[in-house]
Model the fold of this input.
Amino acid sequence: MRGVKIFIVLITAVLLIIASGCAARKTVTPDTPADDDGMGMVEDFEEIPDEEGLPFMEDEAIPEPDGMMAEPEPLPEPEAMDEPPPLIEPEPRPAGMKYIVVKDDTLWDISRKDKIYSNSFRWPLIFKANMDQIQDPDIIEIGQRLDIRKDWDRAEINDAVKKAQDTPPYVPHTNPRKRLPLKY
Done:
C-alpha cells in the first residue's frame, strides 16, 4: 500500500513539472514593452463617419470631395487566345509490312532478316499472321506476299520463340501436312 502512495506522489510530481515547464512564459526584453503580448503592434482604429454620419468599413469606396463615389478602376481585359496550340500526336508505330517470297526462302530465313525480326526463332509470328495463305509453315511459294506484323506484344513474341524451339526437326515433304506438330 505504501508503494502505491509513493507511485502516485511521483506521478503527480512529474505531471506538475511537465505542466509548469510547458506553460508559455512572457519574456520581456529591453526593446519590448512589458505589456507586449508578442502579437505585434495594433494601432487604435478611429471610425470616420461618412456624410450621413455612419461609420464605414475600410474596404468600401471612399467618397470623392465633390460627394460622388469614385468608380473602381476597370480590370484589364484578358488576352484572347486565337486558337489552342495543336496537340502533338505520337507517330504511329508501323503495323507491319509486306514481304514477297523468293526462291529458297523459308520462314526461318525470312524471320532472321534485319528488316523483319532479326531472329530466326520468331518465324511462328509470320506463320500466325499469314495462316489465311499458308497451310504448312514448311511450304511457302515463290511470289507469295506475306504480312510482316510489327505490333506483337512481348507475350506473343515469347510464345512464338518457345513454339519455334519446340518444333521438331524439318523432314522434307511436298504436300502440306494434315496435322501440324504444334498449335501455332
Observations:
- The radius of gyration is 45 Å.
